[in-house]
Amino acid sequence: MTAPRNQAAWLDKAGTSLRVGDAPMPTAGQGEIIVKNAAVAINPLDCHMQDLGVFVQQWPSIFGCDVAGEVYEVGPGVQRFKKGERVIGHTINLVSGRPEDGAYALYTVVRADKAAILPNTISFTDGVVVPFALEAAVCALSLQEAGEALPGVPLPTLGLPFPSLDGAYPSADKVLIVYGGSSSTGSMVTQMATAAGIRVIAITGARNLEFSKSCGAAEIFDHKDIALVEKVVEAVQKSCLDFVGVFDAISTAAPYAHDLAILAKLGGGHLACTHPPPTEVPDNVKAGMIFAVNDIATPVWQGFVTAALESGKLKSFPPPTVVGKGLEYIQEALNMSKAGVSATKLVVEL
Ligand SMILES: NC(=O)c1ccc[n+]([C@@H]2O[C@H](COP(=O)([O-])OP(=O)(O)OC[C@H]3O[C@@H](n4cnc5c(N)ncnc54)[C@H](OP(=O)(O)O)[C@@H]3O)[C@@H](O)[C@H]2O)c1
Description:
Elements: E1 6-10, E2 19-23, E3 32-41, H1 44-52, E4 66-74, E5 86-90, H2 93-96, E6 107-111, E7 115-117, H3 124-127, H4 131-142, E8 148-150, E9 153-154, E10 174-179, H5 184-194, E11 199-204, H6 209-214, E12 219-222, H7 228-239, E13 242-248, H8 253-265, E14 269-273, E15 285-289, H9 298-303, H10 305-311, E16 320-325, H11 329-339, E17 345-349
Parallel strand pairs: 10-11, 10-13, 11-12, 13-14, 14-15, 16-17
Antiparallel strand pairs: 1-2, 3-4, 3-6, 3-17, 4-5, 5-7, 8-9
Bound molecules: NADP nicotinamide-adenine-dinucleotide phosphate (NAP).
């Protein structure tokens, strides 16, 4: 049998197009698996990595955070996976800098504690939308200990419980606002918070109200509604629940203005952002930025993901848009991501 040949979509330097070419065949180290990728997903972070070289530690680079495929090799110490099993995984080139940890290749190293079996009923194309957003959602909702996302930028510490499979909800008395509920991150935070028993009030574009509802949001408001702040505040007050704060998946100037107006009327709370938070926030607002690679997600990967996908408690949302089949389509998918998407995740099949 001939040895498999690995190929990758390489980034040679910031601001250039990806180049498809041969790549070393990775081997699985302690606690790692090698995944033969059947589908990879695009995240906005990848666009920043390509354009600006942020987080790139080694050139040329292979980046990308989401894979779905079959286990090709199992490293020492890994008990949860066998060769040939269908999995999804969150790849961590972002922190390791190693090209073999980037998703945009035929074979990728995945840490076993950032992977889960993908039920047979879910295609690789659907399943690949989950991993990075899932870990981002756990980081947004459940961190308790102070830390930094970037130098001088604190992590959010909402300290909410993990999602539950059995419906035992220790946080059934809480309400959270999710700004950007139709985004990949916002829809996953909505799903995970709902699965922890938290009432979610979401803010999306007008065409995505129903989508956000299907993620579990109890009430949804259009971010262009001129009475947005008043309506969201009223919904929180009417719930008579303990107000946690806002998760803002969009984290740009207009959403921040709404977030701060809502928080001011509700007496403050957490403001968990996907980018550095506003520089000026009142004392009663605890603002932070998530960093979506964190071992806090391990229990969720190990104990929740597969069973929740099987039962339908966790859905592969937002639905994928397949850009093409083959590594050469990743550049086109990145270009589409830069142009903006609505309630979908761009996927390339391999
Ligand atoms: N810090 C971290 O660790 C981390 C982790 C993950 C993501 N991020 C960042 O988080 C951001 C979101 O990522 P993503 O993958 O979730 O994005 P995404 O899925 O590509 O976001 C697309 C969505 O953004 C919504 N949107 C755009 N402008 C909006 C506005 N002004 N108000 C409300 N919604 C708006 C659109 O909603 P409608 O179509 O409904 O209008 C669309 O559905 C990106 O900037 C990404 O880089 C950071």
